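One chain shown below:
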Amino acid sequence: MANAAAAPAPTGAPAPIMGQLSTRETVWAIVKASSGNLVEWFDFYIYAFFSVYFAEQFFTGTGQTGAFMQAAGVFFIGFLMRPVGGYIFGRISDRFGRKDAMVVSILMMGFGSLCLAALPTAATVGAWAPVLLLLVRCIQGIAVGGEYGSTATYMSEIAQPGRRGFFSSFQYVTLIGGQLLASLLAVIMTHTLGGDQITAGWWRLPFVIGAVAALVSLWLRSGLTETTSKSDRHHEGAGTFREVWHHQRSFWVVFGITCIGSLTFYTFSTYMQKYLINTGGFSKGDVADTMTVCLFVFMLMQPVIGAISDKIGRKNSMLIFAVAMIVLPVPVLNAIGRQTSLFDAGLLIILAMFFLSFYTSISGIVKAEMFPAYIRGLGVGFTYAIGNSLFGGSAEYVALFMKQHGFGEVFPWYVTVVAVFGLIAVLFMHDNREHSTIDNPGGSAYGKRPATAS
């Protein structure tokens, strides 16, 4: 039995289900898989949106900016747990299947949300409050770190050939949708309850909602069709970092594009809320309204630009993104900071989000097409999680730290410098129309193992 498990399968051979589903079946599979993605990111983002109301209850004596910075620090540390989740769930995904990985991750996220809803503040437990907050965020960081790779690989594999960019874009539709729902909930609660009531304890309600939604997603995901083949799951190198490292070009390209993709995504989405409040001087409620509209438009962009990538190729889409992120951050962020009109600031944010969509809409499929099936979950999830935790999770903290110490104008230049390295990574990409380990598992340059490897 051990020998059978160790027998190599054809490298990157697709599971029988891939490419055989009707459009209706594909759409339904995407809905079930992405439901968990929406819930997990909703659960993760309600912390970012509601921390402006509870931050000073956990971090006392630091002032508003200091409390925001401390809360952002916890957000960042939660991100640092993502590589752990990417590794654990990447192995589960490659060895036991994408479905099992997605079911376990949604269970963990729901548990974390329930814990957050019940957390005591510093007024009750003193210095233990931020410690407990950090612990729960680490649990959620592991869960969402495992979610990305599993969902990205599943949605890329289940999508129909020739339309993979379009269908896989729904990963970010639901990711942004989770963020949008968190923002929308903040808007509704702000207008119905007011900031004082939310601060007084109603900030706990969104975490309860997230825990309940996780149960619904768990039910939907339990009916998913597995996309991996038994031979891939039993491949001797399945789910091992040793095998991922044999595909170093893929590893470094994914890492490079994730660094700038994550940094710019969190800069123009979650950090914008604090930036408009702290630098622009706008009210929390008005900012919540504006960001909700921006995120809604951003979400609608994803399928359109994902479909464009099916026509022009993933590399060309990524080149548009990388060049734009070199050119735009300095003038756009400076212009946003000088605005006296939230409408004008919102238009500038949407402009940045348009070019950002050339990355977000195809983020999952770009990475999935670079690894053979038997290491795709780990290769995508773990590599993404490293870049995402270092540059995405730190975006708010770095920006607020610079502002706190009087050199906030440096942050846009920091984004630009990282974008230069992202462009270098994009230049090393192959054209997916010839080199995709999903559509061309035997002939893609990405799937070829070095001859010197054992």
Remarks:
- The chain has a mean pLDDT of 83.
